[in-house]
Amino acid sequence: MQRRAVSAVLAATALLVTAGCSSDDGGGGASGGGTTPSSSTTSEAAPSRQAAEETPPAKGSVKVLRTAATGLDTPWGLAPLPDGDLLVSSRDEATITRVDGETGKKTELGEVPGVSPAGEGGLMGLALSPDYASDHMVYAYFTSASDNRVVRMLYEEGKPSGEQLGAPDTVFRGIPKGYIHNGGRIAFGPDKMLYAGTGESGNTGLSQDKKSLGGKILRLTPEGDPAPGNPFPDSPVYSLGHRNVQGLAWDTKQRLFASEFGQDTWDELNAIEPGGNYGWPETEGKSDEGDFRDPIAQWATDDASPSGIAYAEGSIWMAGLKGQRLWRIPLKGTEASADPQAFLEGEYGRLRTVVSAGGDKLWLVTSNTDGRGDPKEGDDRILQVQVS
């Protein structure tokens, strides 16, 4: 099977130490920010095509059903298995662990070779092959000594604990790496193509450079080639002008949404269009400048610093790191139909990943052992929540 490794134009990586950038995995830290949600939604009327779609209630609810697992070290990516168990990655230990969905028992599959954890980099996003039932392939996004890359590994359940991961096969390489802003979320879309959210690695100029893989959403075949129908010929770039994308989710109409870390003013939730330019570093949040696409919702960086997102019950659910809360953004088409609503504020600390558990249930992963949190007994943990 032919695979094409795509090389990026790699600029020298900078640490980007700037006043107002807290480096909370790319989220800013506006000084003096309070705990009152500071959000903004679009006020333009939705197109008539969207008007016919059912609109969820303006207010929703969240109920924590149970703690599914405890004692996880720097958990980052989460991939539910067909039988209800979960695969979770450890950013700093570079391991993948299977969690029994009922008992919480943890079984280490193995360590992923070639991972070089540092700062915000390490072993991050996980995704199962769209043909997992037959090929048993697990995809992972990680930071190596030279770049960020996507690999796939055979999961061999019959082998002893710690030896169940096959050798990583590099599917895609050349994504700029840095101490900060490494992106890291991967997901297979409804089209069975592989999407990857990348960061600009602290070099803001990469986001507007169509030849760079930094500050982009990439769309690839499962083998790592630019996916058919991409907006730029022979390019894996699907959208550009991003600062640090760590959340990807689709609604029931197969529309893509992505969360975005701001620097020190606005975090964003964006509705992603092929070839869309989302403005960074020229704009942060909503703006009248140029042909940049505005977010459908935005937050002060103290209130969000968003990582993972998921879709359920007509809303996008967004995990907040510095904000330490779960945000609900009700949708009507590709617009927010009401102001975002916050849940679990401060109850479980930093929230990293949220994944659909089917129907009205979500898996929620905390992130208090990542060096920026305040770990409590039992951290980090996986929660199962019910939402409406």
Protein architecture, described:
Mean pLDDT is 90; it is low at 1-22 and 28-48. The chain is globular, with a radius of gyration of 19 Å. It has one domain (53-387): 6 Propeller (Neuraminidase). Strands 1-18-17-16-15 form a five-stranded antiparallel beta sheet, with no helix packed on it. A hairpin with a 5-residue loop joins strand 20 (315-320) and strand 21 (326-332). The protein is mainly β. The longest helix has 4 residues, at 48-51. It has two helices and 26 strands.
Task: Please provide the count of β strands.
Answer: 26
Query: What proportion of the residues is helical, as a percent range?
Result: under 10%
Mean pLDDT: 90
Note poorly predicted spans. Answer: 1-22, 28-48
Second rung of CATH, namely the architecture: 6 Propeller
- Using only C-alpha atoms, the radius of gyration works out to 19 Å
Q: Classify the fold: give the CATH topology.
A: Neuraminidase
Question: Biggest β-sheet, characterized?
Answer: 5 strands, antiparallel
Strand order of the largest sheet: 1-18-17-16-15
Question: In the CATH hierarchy, what is the class?
Answer: Mainly Beta
Span from first to last CA? 44 Å
Q: Counting H and I runs of at least 4 residues, what is the number of helices? A: 2
Structural class: mainly beta
Tally of distinct domains? 1
For this structure, what is the CATH homologous superfamily? TolB, C-terminal domain
